[in-house]
Amino acid sequence: MEAQACSRYVRQSPRKIRIVINEVRGKKVSDALNYLHFSPKKGSDVIEKTLRSAVSNLLQKADDANIDPDSLIVSKAFVNGGPHMKRFRPASMGRISRLNKPTSHVTVVVCDE
Questions:
Q1: Where are the alpha helices (DSSP H) in 25-81?
Q2: Do 24 and 36 touch, CB atoms closer than 8 A?
Q3: Distance CA 97, CA 80 (A)
Q4: pLDDT band for position 70 (50/70/90)?
Q5: How many domains does the chain have?
Q6: Which of 102 and 113 is assigned the larger pLDDT?
Q7: CA 79 to CA 74: how far, in whole Å?
Q8: Which H or E run includes 17?
Q9: Beta bridge partners of 74
Q10: Tell me, what CATH number does 99's domain have?
């Protein structure tokens, strides 16, 4: 049995979040949560929250079945790019320069072994 959780429009670039999410893919949930909780990266907070939500979704989905939370693994975890927020700031000689502020969509899938 598996369940997923998504966090959408996260205000960080997908490239920076993929660095963290590649570390937790395929690990046990307890090891992944331990890694994410003590990681200094900014994206680890969002991934930890999404992972806890996926575990909660799985336990809610299978309330009649006896599922041990220690036996859960992160089967899939990926990041897709979201829309860019386009902002402008002044540049030299009266011009403007464009700033792209990227967003991400984080998806975590948890299953029992």
A1: 29-37, 43-61
A2: yes
A3: 26
A4: confident
A5: 1
A6: 102
A7: 14
A8: helix 14-24
A9: 110
A10: 3.90.470.10
Task: Please write down the long-range contacts of 13-18, taking CB distance under 8 Å and 24 or more positions apart.
Answer: 13/102, 13/104, 14/79, 14/80, 14/81, 14/82, 14/102, 14/104, 16/41, 16/42, 16/43, 17/43, 17/46, 17/47, 17/79, 17/104, 17/106, 18/79
Residues of the domain holding 84: 2-112
Tell me the C-alpha to C-alpha distance, in Å, between residue 26 and each of 42, 56, 111: 21, 18, 10
Q: Quote the Cα angle for 70-77-55, to 5°.
A: 35
Per-position b or e across 81-92, b if 16+ CB within 10 A of its CB: ebeeeeeeeeee
Which tops the pLDDT comparison, 74 or 63?
74
Whole-structure pTM value: 0.91
Which tokens in the block code for residue 45?
């907070």
Encode burial over 56-75: b for 16+ CB neighbours within 10 A, e otherwise: ebbeeeeeeeeeeeeebbbb
